């Protein structure tokens, strides 16, 4: 059961990074902020690489990494664009689509099977995540879906949720074929390097005054929490089914409710939080 506390740590760090990223995006280029969010991962994961045992790597490992990286980079930029363009209550609930897709994708790619109880738990977590803004009084039941027709950010987040259902399974396979720390030490620096040309080109205007415009300071904390969630993620996903781990990680939406309640005095979300926690309980007893 070590995967559960690791996943909760990953969810908390992701929620914190998202909230801080949303703040950092105000008045700054989303491509540059996205890159600065992952940039500290370059030294953080490269420095210990010489001390990490290199597992025997076969063609399947390289295939998984090469297939996952372009999708992961596209999802990164779409995620930040969604946070910048549209309200959180219309975008983040759509991430609940990922656990539902993971009821099928890991079986097709990895052969992973879920118990009936575990699958029911995944569905409840996804349902609770979708209902969070509704139970907080932020629009009607179909508000996030209606946003698809007039919110570019909502369309971006649908794409992100779909991409993550594939990259989560591919990443799990690559970790299985290597090791959690080795995978992170290879994957994150490659992601930083491959996103650099796009980010630096799109954000070239802000680069001229990068030491004075506050973008470095605004991106520092989101980057720290993003790196922490990566480490917790790779270890957690290596020890359980992908669908279970990603479903529990969607409790990052619940942590967002707690941020709203205690930092911004927002109310509501109790029913949806209860549904999500019931889903986690079913996953725990059904795995």
Task: Give a structural overview.
- α11 (180-202) packs antiparallel against α13 (215-237).
- Helices cover 77% and strands 0% of the residues.
- The longest helix is centred in the first third of the chain and has 27 residues, at 59-85.
- With 287 residues, the chain is an all-alpha fold.
- The protein has one domain (3-286).
- The model has no long low-confidence stretch (mean pLDDT 81).
Please supply descriptive tags for the structure shown above:
single chain; mainly alpha; 287 residues; 16 helices
Please identify the structural class as seen in this structure. mainly alpha
Residue share in β-strands: under 5%
Number of alpha- plus pi-helical segments: 16
Which value, in Å, is the CA radius of gyration?
A: 18 Å
* Overall 3D shape: globular
Distance between the termini: 10 Å
The overall number of domains is 1
- Largest sheet, if any? none
Helix and strand run: HHHHHHHHHHHHHHHH
The helicity comes to over 70%
Oligomer: single chain
Q: Give the tally of β-strands.
A: 0
Spans where pLDDT lies below 50 across 5 or more residues: none
What's the pLDDT, averaged over the residues? 81
């Amino acid at each position: 059961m070590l995967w559960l506390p690791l996943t909760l740590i990953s969810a908390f760090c992701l929620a914190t990074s998202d909230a801080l990223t949303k703040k950092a995006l105000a008045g700054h280029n989303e491509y540059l902020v996205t890159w600065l969010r992952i940039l500290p991962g370059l030294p953080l994961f490269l420095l210990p690489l010489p001390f990490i045992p290199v597992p025997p790597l076969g063609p399947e490992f390289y295939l998984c990494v090469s297939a996952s990286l372009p999708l992961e980079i596209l999802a990164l930029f779409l995620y930040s664009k969604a946070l910048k363009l549209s309200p959180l209550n219309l975008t983040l609930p759509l991430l609940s689509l990922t656990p539902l897709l993971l009821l099928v994708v890991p079986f097709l790619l990895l052969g992973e099977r879920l118990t009936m109880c575990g699958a029911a738990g995944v569905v409840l977590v996804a349902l609770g995540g979708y209902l969070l803004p509704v139970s907080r009084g932020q629009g009607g039941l179909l508000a996030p879906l209606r946003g698809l027709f007039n919110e570019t950010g909502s369309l971006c987040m649908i794409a992100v949720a779909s991409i993550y259902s594939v990259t989560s399974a591919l990443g799990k396979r690559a970790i299985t074929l290597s090791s959690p720390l080795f995978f992170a030490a290879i994957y994150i620096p490659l992601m930083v390097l491959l996103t650099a040309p796009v980010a630096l080109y799109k954000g070239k205007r802000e680069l001229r005054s990068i030491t004075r415009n506050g973008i470095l300071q605004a991106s520092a904390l989101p980057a720290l929490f993003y790196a922490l969630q990566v480490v917790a993620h790779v270890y957690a996903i290596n020890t359980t089914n992908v669908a279970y781990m990603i479903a529990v990680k969607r409790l990052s939406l619940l942590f967002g409710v707690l941020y709203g309640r205690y930092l911004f005095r927002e109310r509501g979300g109790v029913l949806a939080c209860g549904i999500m926690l019931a889903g986690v309980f079913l996953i725990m007893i059904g795995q």
